[in-house]
Write a structure and sequence with these properties.
Number of domains: 2
Structural class: alpha/beta
Largest sheet: 6 strands, mixed
Number of helices: 10
Strand content: 15-25%
Shape: globular
Distance between the termini: 51 Å
Strand order of the largest sheet: 1-2-10-7-8-9
Bound molecules: pyridoxal-5'-phosphate
CATH class of the largest domain: Alpha Beta
């Protein structure tokens, strides 16, 4: 497949791309395994940083095409996706309704603070109610906006759907150019997996653009069986909608669920250590919900020797810095 033959749908230009691919030479030398590279998708913007903005470039183009004036989406209290949606809504002049999981305590911090700052309408629900009634909550808010004469566009968790998949297909295209520029041919691309869209896009994109790398998602919630299914489901819907020629049965969808720790959003000491190590050694900041866990996974696999035959591995830094501050109590200096 040549790059030109993949027909991308319309996208808004919202993210600062291409992002840099950098070698982590001090870290690689200290571990003694493959050379570690980092794709700096934490630099897709400042307050609009991270992976969600790449997906939203495609999703919001669709919302605008449909003439919508309101966005409705959902996530945890510290959702990076909700924060990106809130800020982009403000940037584009769209109303934003957030359906959040959890009960806020004290002053709003991190992403939730930015949601409020961007003027999003924030509705929080206790976890039990949210999990049980999410579809009904979406229906409730859609009706609410329809009755006000607004036209709302619904974005699922993490913008991981058949449209959002394009964001990381586009990133795979960038990686192809990065690898050529640095004259490397990495065996692995590692990312954090929460709702599966990043992994889905990278996996499809790696095949479309003939990268030799296997994509590995490091799960931060749910198990690898769940993500095998979820990633495939998103790609089936994507292929059905856009009719892209690609043998989905031939894709190798790999998720490692050994490093997620006690629960979504709860970091273990190994995750905190990984965040501190990268900050001290390379001056790059990870987060305790996604990238810290995925990076602990990368470190764990390298230390185990399982990746010792590889020459180059790439970690996709998907952002999340605002989720660090509400958990600063986990760090001891
Ligand atoms: C959402 C998120 C992820 C996970 O991406 P998915 O496409 O939802 O699997 C990883 N890192 C950060 C910082 C995120 O906000």
């Amino acid at each position: 497949m040549t790059i030109a033959s993949v027909a991308f749908p319309n996208a808004l230009s919202l993210a600062q791309t291409p992002t840099p691919l950098q070698a982590l030479d001090r870290l690689s030398a200290s571990l003694g395994g493959p050379r570690i590279w980092i794709k700096r998708d934490d630099l897709t913007g400042s307050h609009l940083s991270g992976n969600k903005i790449r997906k939203l470039e495609f999703v919001l183009a669709e919302a605008q095409q449909q003439g919508c004036d309101t966005l409705i989406t959902c996530g945890g209290l510290q959702s990076n996706h909700c924060r990106a949606t809130a800020l982009l809504g403000a940037q584009l002049g769209l109303k934003v309704q957030l359906i959040l999981r959890g009960t806020p305590e004290g002053q709003a911090d991190g992403n939730l603070f930015l949601d409020h700052l961007a003027g999003a309408n924030v509705a929080c629900y206790p976890t039990k109610e949210y999990v049980k009634n999410l579809d009904a909550l979406f229906a409730h808010w859609q009706t609410h906006y329809r009755e006000q004469g607004s036209k709302a566009f619904v974005i699922p968790t993490g913008a991981s759907d058949e449209i959002g998949v394009w964001g990381y297909i586009q990133c795979a295209r960038e990686l192809k150019a990065d690898f050529a520029q640095h004259q490397i041919d990495p065996e692995l691309i590692v990312c954090a997996t929460g709702s599966g869209g990043t992994q889905a896009g990278l996996t499809a994109g790696a095949s479309l653009f003939e990268l030799n790398a296997q994509v590995i998602g490091m799960a931060v919630c749910d198990n690898s069986d769940y993500f095998k299914h979820k990633v495939r489901e998103d790609l089936d819907a994507w292929q059905h909608r856009y009719q892209v020629e690609l043998d989905l049965d031939a894709l190798s969808i790999v998720t490692n669920d050994d490093y997620m720790g006690p629960a979504y959003g709860v970091a273990a000491p190994e995750h905190i250590d990984a965040i501190q190590l990268l900050a001290k050694l390379e001056g790059i900041v990870l987060d305790p919900v996604y990238t810290g866990k995925a990076f602990a996974g990368l470190l764990g696999e390298i230390k185990s020797g399982r990746w010792s035959s590889y020459s180059d591995v790439v970690f996709v830094h998907t952002g999340g810095i605002f989720g660090l501050f509400p958990q600063k109590g986990e760090f001891i200096f």
